[in-house]
Amino acid sequence: MKWERAGLVGAAIGVVAAGAAAGVAIERVTVGRSVRRKAQLALDAAGPYGSLRGQPGTAVAEDGTELYYETDELVEPPAAAEPARRGWRRRREPAPEPAPLTVVFSHGYCLNQDSWHFQRAVLRGTVRAVYWDQRSHGRSERGRDQAAGGPATIDQLGRDLKAVLDAAVPEGPVALVGHSMGGMTVMAFADQYPEYVRERVAGVGFVSTSSGKLASVTLGLPAVGARAFRAVAPGLLKIMGSQAELVERARRATAELFAGVIKRYSFGSDVEPGVERFAERLIESTPIDVVAEFYPAFTEHEKGEALAVLDGLPALVLAGDKDLLTPSAHSTEIAERLPAAEAVIVPGAGHLVTFERPDVVNPALARLIAHAADSVRAPVGDGLRELAAAGGAQPVYGG
């Protein structure tokens, strides 16, 4: 029972620190494990969530860690027909084709690139896009520095993003989009590579993220409980990370309760069971020692000043107003530092607003991408512009 209790606490800590799910549903406790497992398999088979794949590639981080990414190419829209001309004219050399805009998507803690499924499904073919797995997540290699006992830091993730950009987007304009930890990764990148931002970055999107002050987030707990959680979490996670095999076994044994925690901290409203299960599956795949390694980095994250590097670029700041992990007030603070950004606060949505409200997120991202492409005269597909227009006009924060 000792490790079973530890597994439950560790599951909760891992999910809370990452960006996972919501309230403990009674039926998950009372329904037999075999019945629940059959239901899970049925949901996994019914929903094709996370099944989209692109052209694979690998970037190498500064410590030698191999970072996995996939590229979805732009399917060129048909070229406009040249109007017929009368008479003879001197033949001119055609103008060089402009480089396409590439949108690079950085996912959150305890997730992987498949967490962009609902955006990837509608953007495919309309813009060149790169999706990558952060170190120790998804198909990327376990961080070599971390395997050797070193800490995980947000600054290191920013340098990892630079390695992915160098490998996957060696030329042309880029837009950077990050969810939760992915948004922090983008801020760290901007802080470390301001010249790259000035020369190559055409737009930026922050979804459910924060520029700092995460140590003061209450996680929806009473003040006393939040203080207690912050006090014990780092030490407990460190212990659990050192006993990963035992804790993983306990975490599986408490999967029913773990699913309830995921639901509470991921969503602000009811979602389809298949979508809920998809989030559960992504978070469950993150080993407890990886959860433990990354958790301390969030309380140290302070990148508000780095946002000045991005000021003036086409930008989107989006969050759900029921987010318990990176509260929407943190997005409001980001928008205040990027006064030209479109700020969208989604009523009733939680941390995984990309899963919960793709009907709002997708058009907003399409508007950002179209604006970024227009700012550098880069081609995008007609489908992207149609999606952007379908979302309707949105107010600009501070405008």
Describe this structure in words.
The chain is α/β, with parallel strands linked by helices and 399 residues long. The chain has a domain at 27-75 and 97-222 and 293-390: 3-Layer(aba) Sandwich (Rossmann fold). The protein has helices spanning 2-18, 26-30, 33-46, 117-123, 144-147, 154-168, 181-192, 194-200, 223-242, 244-253, 255-266, 273-284, 288-300, 328-337, 353-356, 358-375, 382-390, and strands spanning 55-60, 66-72, 102-106, 128-132, 174-179, 201-207, 315-320, 342-346. An eight-stranded mixed beta sheet has the order 1-2-4-3-5-6-7-8, with helices on both faces. Residues 1-31, 78-90 and 395-399 have low confidence and may be disordered.
Looking across the biggest beta sheet, what order are the strands in?
1-2-4-3-5-6-7-8
Summed up, the helix count is: 17
Global geometry:
globular
- CATH class group of the domain at 27-75 and 97-222 and 293-390: Alpha Beta
Strand content: 5-15%
Biggest sheet record: 8 strands, mixed
Tell me, rounded to a whole number, the average pLDDT: 82
CATH architecture classification name of the domain at 27-75 and 97-222 and 293-390: 3-Layer(aba) Sandwich
Percent range of helical residues: 40-55%
CATH superfamily of the domain at 27-75 and 97-222 and 293-390: Alpha/Beta hydrolase fold, catalytic domain
Number of strands: 8
Low-confidence stretches: 1-31, 78-90, 395-399
CATH topology term of the domain at 27-75 and 97-222 and 293-390: Rossmann fold
Report how far apart the termini are: 56 Å
Cα-atom Rg, whole angstroms?
Answer: 22 Å
